[in-house]
């Protein structure tokens, strides 16, 4: 899995740089794999530990943004703007994050936290720890 530095123009004049995990390309199908979570961009599929998982469009958009920025905090406002086009929607993001966690966590009683809340900032898709 390779990562490259990307610079993305923001609404402000400056440019935001971050490390991004590139999707692997198998033929023409773009696939992003982090740990045992696989997101297939072109077929709009989520595979968790080898099992296909149904993912509504908004959850797919949120998960794609989190996984594309794995290891980096994504601001709540940026997730809202990307999924809904505005950031004034209350509690809707939290509902979708909760649903995503339920779909990808192996043990909700003691989760391995793929999606972690960073209070007052946003969310982060944690990269797997090499033991």
Please describe what this structure looks like:
- Helices cover 26% and strands 34% of the residues.
- The strands form 3 sheets. A 5-stranded antiparallel β-sheet has the order 3-4-5-6-7, covered by helices on one side.
- It has a single domain (3-125), classed as Orthogonal Bundle (Arc Repressor Mutant, subunit A), CATH 1.10.10.10.
- Helix 1 crosses helix 3 (92-104).
- It has 3 helices and 10 strands; from the N terminus they run βββββββαβααββ.
- Residues 1-19 have low confidence and may be disordered.
- The two termini are 17 Å apart.
- It is an alpha+beta fold and 131 residues long.
Helices and strands in order, then pairings?
Blueprint: E1 3-9, E2 15-21, E3 24-26, E4 29-34, E5 37-40, E6 45-48, E7 51-53, H1 57-68, E8 74-75, H2 76-84, H3 92-104, E9 115-118, E10 122-125
Antiparallel strand pairs: 1-2, 3-4, 4-5, 5-6, 6-7, 8-10, 9-10
Helix pairs in contact: 1-2, 1-3
Mean pLDDT: 79
For the record, give the distance between the C-alpha atoms at the N and C termini, rounded to a whole number. 17 Å
Number of alpha- plus pi-helical segments: 3
Q: Helicity range of the residues?
A: 25-40%
What kind of sheet is the major sheet?
5 strands, antiparallel
Unreliable sequence segments = 1-19
Query: What name is given to the CATH topology?
Result: Arc Repressor Mutant, subunit A
- Count all strands and give the number: 10
Task: Label the structural class.
Answer: alpha+beta
β-strand amount: 25-35%
Biggest sheet: strand arrangement:
3-4-5-6-7
Rg from Cα:
15 Å
CATH architecture: Orthogonal Bundle
> How many domains would you count in the coordinates?
1
CATH superfamily: Winged helix-like DNA-binding domain superfamily/Winged helix DNA-binding domain
CATH class: Mainly Alpha
Globally, the shape reads globular
């Amino acid at each position: 899995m390779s990562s490259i530095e990307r610079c993305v123009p923001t609404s402000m004049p400056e440019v935001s740089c971050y490390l991004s995990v590139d999707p692997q390309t198998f033929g023409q199908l773009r696939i992003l794999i982090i740990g045992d979570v696989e997101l297939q961009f072109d077929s709009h599929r989520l595979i968790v530990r080898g099992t296909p998982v149904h993912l509504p469009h908004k959850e797919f958009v949120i998960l794609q943004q989190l996984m594309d920025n794995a290891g980096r905090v994504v601001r709540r406002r940026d997730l809202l703007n990307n999924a809904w086009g505005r950031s004034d929607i209350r509690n809707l993001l939290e509902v979708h994050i909760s649903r995503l966690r339920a779909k990808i966590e192996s043990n909700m009683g003691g989760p391995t936290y793929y999606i972690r809340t960073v209070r007052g900032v946003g969310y982060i898709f944690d990269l797997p720890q090499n033991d």
